[in-house]
Amino acid sequence: MEAKRRPRGALESEVMAALWAAGKPLSPADVQATLGGGLAYNTVQTILIRLMDKELVRRAAQGRGHIYWPVLDAATTAADRMRAALDARPDRQAVLQQFAAGLGAEDAEVLRALLDERTS
Length: 120
What we know:
By secondary structure, the chain is mainly alpha-helical. The chain is built from six helices and two strands. The chain folds into two domains: about 10-70, Arc Repressor Mutant, subunit A (Orthogonal Bundle); about 75-120. A hairpin with a 2-residue loop joins strand 1 (about 55-60) and strand 2 (about 65-70).
């Protein structure tokens, strides 16, 4: 039986989620233990290095290895991705309209209050 592949970027997202949840720098072994699921240490280390190359995490030497932490918090990273997605489309109004239409009532109310704060 063929193993099911993760969607593109899923491992990076899982590693970032582990770093954000920890609230402190983690070693590759710490990340591996947090994620479970049988990921090889080298796989986790490769993902951390890729995230560092993308300037999403930083690292410092600790003992014979390194520890890693996120450059930005989860909310800022999500907002940056939302802005990038918006910037990548020629019809910003249509994108914003579809986004707003997909919000639940509670999220729409939060967004409305935030926009009201911004304009007052």
